[in-house]
Amino acid sequence: MERHRHRDHSPDALTSGGFTLIELLVTLAVALILGVLSAEALPRVVQESRMVSEVNHFVTALHLGRSEAVLQGRRVVLCPSADQAHCGNSQDWPEGWLLFASDDREHDPDEPVLQAAARMGNGIGMRSGNSRKRIVFQPDGSAGGSNSSFTFCEAHQRARPRVVCLSGTGRPRISGHRCDGTPIHCP
Question: Which one of 49, 88, 92, 111 has the largest count of C-beta atoms within 10 Å of its C-beta?
Answer without folding.
Answer: 88
